[in-house]
Automatic annotation (TrEMBL):
PANTHER family for the chain: 3-PHENYLPROPIONATE_CINNAMIC ACID DIOXYGENASE FERREDOXIN SUBUNIT (PTHR21496:SF23), FERREDOXIN-RELATED (PTHR21496)
Keywords annotated in UniProt: 2Fe-2S, Dioxygenase, Iron, Iron-sulfur, Metal-binding, Oxidoreductase
Domain Rieske, first and last residues per copy: 3-99
Coiled coil: none
Claim: rRNA processing is one of the keywords in the record: no
GO molecular function: 2 iron, 2 sulfur cluster binding; dioxygenase activity; metal ion binding; monooxygenase activity; oxidoreductase activity, acting on paired donors, with incorporation or reduction of molecular oxygen
CDD domains the UniProt entry points to: Rieske_RO_ferredoxin
Protein name: Ferredoxin subunit of nitrite reductase and ring-hydroxylating dioxygenase
Amino acid sequence: MEYVRVARSGQVPDGYVRRFFAGELELAVARLRGTAYATSNYCTHLDCLLSSGKLVDDGIGCSCHGSVFDLRTGEAVCPPATEPIKTFPVKEENGEIFVGLTEHDIAQGSRLAGPRRRGTAG
C-alpha cells in the first residue's frame, strides 16, 4: 500500500465532505469530529455522489435518497442502500491528507463507482 497525497488538511473542514482524485480514482474525503476519512464517492444504491451529501452521526449521507454509510467500515447503516462502499486508510501529516491505496485500487480507478458508472466491463 502507498499513501497518496489528495488534499491539504484545510480543504476538508470538520463536518464536511469533499471530492478529490488520486489519479483516476474518485474519492469522498470527510472530516468528522477532527478525524479525516476517505471512501469511494458513489452511493451503491443509485450512483449518486457521496461528496454532495452531508455527514450525519458517524456516517456519510447520500443526498439523493438518504442512504447512510459508516465512515470507518463502509457498511450501509440506513436504507435504501444495502451494499457497502469502499473505505481507505487516511493519515494526516504536516497539514496534508494522504490516502492509503493499493495498486489494485489505483488500477480500478473509476470502476469503484456504482453500477451505471462502471460501464459494460464492470
